[in-house]
Request: fold
Amino acid sequence: MEKDPALEQEFISTVQQNKQIIYKVCYMYASNSFELNDLYQEVVINLWRGFCTFRGDSSISSWIYRIGLNTCISYYRKSSSRPKTVALVDNLEVYEDTSKTAQLKELYRLINMLNKLERALILLWLDDKTYDEIAEIMGLNRNTIASKLKRIKTKIVEMANQ
Reply:
């Protein structure tokens, strides 16, 4: 890609505005802070590679989710030595209310027990994406998304009750 300062600045601004999305996706697939940083860098690199070809057919956040999820899933496909479930970094002290912190940690623990596709779907749903947006990001139809999310929610409740 030819160096274009305006394009670079637009890209940097876009990444800054959406860094929470990138970190959220990477966090769901990383087992430690080093992997989190590696995945974040991989996602940003892939975003840069596709940035000039982004047509705006979807929202920029949907496009970033799709690139992020595909990057993270590909990262784990390339390495057969990775565990099937990964443990989240245990520093979720985001709330002063310890009951909320405990609930959040438990939710992430349960989500980490899901397979990659289920994790991606529930992550998007928890981020208040509509079924149509999730379908667009994941490349599935809306009815499939609705059905899968219903099964995932049931599975999480069952795992929580064990």
